[in-house]
């Protein structure tokens, strides 16, 4: 066990020279002995005495406070024997014992006036003095004293060398006359009854004598120690023969008298100690015997009762027994030294107790509190033979640990003070060496400095309970000064070693690991692992973990600085090791933090237990320390590559952001805002609808400003400006949780606190948003403001930012005056954000506070950097009728680019506010006048023109006025009598003004204003000419549409649909781009040269890339719900930033409601079949085939229907979600391939079968299945549809499926024969194609990136017509050979029409098994019969009237996005992907395509 040693924290603080000289004058006298002690109370004093000289100094600084030299009547002056601090009547002093030749004098010394105020002569030589009380009289405070003592005012106990035990009355009630040591009063010993004490005391006081009670008559054995114990109301007296007496001050009787086990050794001192929660009402008294050696004796005092007084003090009554339970010799046997001990001297002893408040303890139970910490501290010196300086020690005895060690009576065999579990010893050799040869007089341990090392793990290791974990400060009193020192426990010493270590050498690693092991600072995994069992790297890892856990980063930062400064071969490797180790620690800590925070956000708990707070604090401390390491690496790094520097910057940023996030979460937990309970939380009040729509009688309506429309900005809430400053990242974050709109307030506290994980956002904006919400919390709830207001102090937020946010919050809540006072406060940050002034002015103008806005504008003087800001300031000035200031502002901020706009804005606002007359009175510039005249002439009608005319007259511009009046005269409506009268008056006025002009000038002005007269147009009606013939001839300039031009137009339109609808998927290295060659540029693609399925192009292929490119995500990942948060693109650039995401939080109540029945509603067969997808799992192996594995040529359609179906609902597109509590059954329809003709067998041999799963689930919802995809994949924009008549097999299958819904049916298969249409070779007759209308709705599917299916409308009639022609080419091949109708049955693909109707709980899923060699334009048409659950009414083509197209498809309702998962989700998503592009390859690969184009042109 390593020795504990004290560390000197200050140099020798010497006393003033006058004090040293005064104490040294009497050293020449051999009888004079220097004495000194610290006072016991909290006065913080120390006294020193040598002979008659008394010096009182400050116990911390050594400053001289008081001094006095006592005088005597004899030849030799008196000497000071002892002193005790004493306070009375708000005065501080000392009880001083003087020794004279005739006896002793007890003096009361007043420090305030440095004089003796009371003096009493005591027989014999006083050896010890102890004050009992400083008051008296028959009051409640003296009830614990004997009735005789209650008549005394101030009682002091005195013992002498003759064995006297006296209780002296200090007569503090009579301070009329001051006494000195030369005028000491006599002492009168009384033994009368208490009834006679008042009379005797009055009588003796008149005679100048003091009364005293004698407890013990002199026996000749001197008393050496004295101690009053307030808790037991006992006076302990020790004698020189080793006996001990206990006197009860209530009865003045001796309760105990016995000799200590140390024998006839003088009792030197006492100290009292109380354990924690001893049920036997026991307390303990230490008795120290000291002669040549020092022995400690612990006496157990057992009482019958332990109670708490009204004053709060603990009080024991009824002593039952007293016995010695423990003894300890402070000699060489217990503390081995190099040489034999010759002398041991006790320096001091004291007890320190600390009471801890228990908030969970019920006060009504009236429990008596006991100290949680109770230690007795002893200091002693050991002088060994041949040793120069004595060895000095401080011992700390923890009585609670002595209880834990089962209360041994002494050290056990093999134990020493170095290894004692309840007594710790510190060595003070460093103090002695520094102060030698000055002797130590006393040592005082400061009570407030005593602390125990805090454990960093839970539960704490055993080492943290031992007394070796205590830390405390002490002061040593010497004859010349003071020395301060500190004693640290094993844990603090180890941490200090780690902080001061500057390198990671082998010795440092080995020593550091040993220290950490002994101190209990290692993790529980290494608690018992010795250094020999670990490698050096494992020991270093343990030391680094301990340094980070305990915030002792000096070792790590010192090593980083050393390795970066030196150019050693291993320095780079070491730095790399530190970097990777720290980052791994950050990742692990972040995962632990997410696990801790999950219950805080999912409504699973309503309170935070202390263990959770401790774990949060631990994680925050770790992250803060790791952030410090990255900051040190960043500041000390040299010659980094660009990639390395970027990675280090990201790691530093991420660690600091997560640390700040943990701090905020911890604060929210401590203030009670977290966790979010399942009931009505504080945030739910803020997020409720009442927050945005309060009643009219309420104070505010926060949504009022958002509804404003017109001239002012509709979005001028201050909080909206804060949110907008953070950008789209914050909006997406607040849309992540359920109910989030992207606007304030956030739906949950999870979304609010996650803003601290957003990088590239100013921290002040984050704090401002949180402060704004906390103000709402205080406003909308009864949450105490004290805890919420502590947020700025906890995070060192500037007061200027706090006042600014408070002002903005008040402005949003229409408290204009208080808001303005805060915004204009000198301590408020004036221009923290660029949008600040504009939003404030906008809000004030919206709320009609024009005067307040003007005051804000005058005081703040916001900078105007844009035209919009200048217009806003102009509006404020004009609404307050400050025209001159507005015009000056306009001239100051106008330039060549915005002058026209600003002037027009000025004129329009003036006209709107009725300020145009006042504006025209101002001196305008030439350009301003021109624009003003142009504005008045062009706007406002007659009123503005008349105003302009008056302005002309005022400016003596008569010619323009006459011209304007003449123009108005020509445009006047003569029918309106009022207007006619007004015109007459105006003409009269202008005629009078016109007389001042010469006649020629007036005539020229009038003629110039007349408009030019154009010859009138003569319209003549003629009869319509009759044509000479009925044959229309083509004109020479008619555009001729050639065959090549038409084909080019078709291909152009196809390209536009391809590019405009959905972009092509990106190609991967394994699957190169399948871009089609341009028309007539490359070789035409035929089925013999390239056989590919047209659906294969739409199948999602696996990509070998492990990290998706920027802006994309893995294609096979299930689509996220609309409420899920897509990570920012920057995360793809920096992998470190991925840690700045928190896991999705699902409320516990909703999760429990959705669990269980949802998954139990699926049968194992349907789950297994839905998972048999050809491309379900991506692969990165380049050696595998890019095509799906071949399957038998068998098609199967699976219908999964429910046992109970509700009523039918309208057709809706769903998002693959099925409700719970429904069982489903499976029916298979098996499609056999048709017979293959010899000429087509080769081309069709490679085609594979299909398996389609149709799942009936949600009410009124239908996902895109087979019936919709087959028609839609050919063409998107068409209404031309053809359908076949039902086959006999269809009718049989329909009858077979019409069975009771609740009947359990096994899996069955229905065989259906398919017929493939023949390829027509003869050109069919012309078919009239009816073009689609311009407003025909067409469904365009898009599922990239999890987008919803939307409806798009084709507005161009020409584009729809071209698309219809393309559709006709693809789906109507039978028109080329009408003669083959009788010989060959034509089967076309069905289309989903308007009559499609589903049961309410219905969903359609499709699974495709495609082969790369499948024929694209000869797919078997699959017809599904009507099911009891899925009713599809399909129109068939009868062939009677081929020219009549079918009815157009009605618009389909928008697809509802539920955001929940489903086992068949990937399969359904593939079906959506099949519909996202028109099949252009079919047009290129069709054999008869060019013939059809030629036919259409003709």
UniProtKB/TrEMBL annotation:
Alphabetized Gene3D superfamilies for the sequence: YVTN repeat-like/Quinoprotein amine dehydrogenase
Domain ELYS beta-propeller, chain residue ranges per copy: 1-484
Residue ranges occupied by any ELYS-like domain in the UniProt entry: 716-937
Keyword Signal: no
Record's compositionally biased regions (Polar residues): 1120-1129
Comp. bias intervals (Acidic residues): 1434-1443
Entries under InterPro entries matching the protein: ELYS-bb (IPR032040), ELYS/MEL-28_NucAsmblyFactor (IPR052620), ELYS_dom (IPR025151), Quinoprotein_ADH-like_sf (IPR011047), WD40/YVTN_repeat-like_dom_sf (IPR015943)
A Pfam match: ELYS-bb
Ranges of compositional bias, category Basic and acidic residues: 1410-1421
Lineage: superkingdom: Eukaryota
Principal cellular location given in the protein's record: nucleus
Localization of this protein: Nucleus
Signal peptide residue numbers: none
GO-annotated cellular components: nucleus
Sequence segments annotated as region (Disordered): 1101-1131, 1173-1194, 1344-1367, 1409-1465
PANTHER family, alphabetized: ELYS PROTEIN, PROTEIN ELYS
Protein name as it appears in the record: AT hook containing transcription factor 1
Source organism (scientific name): Oncorhynchus tshawytscha
Lineage: Eukaryota, Metazoa, Chordata, Craniata, Vertebrata
Record gene name: AHCTF1
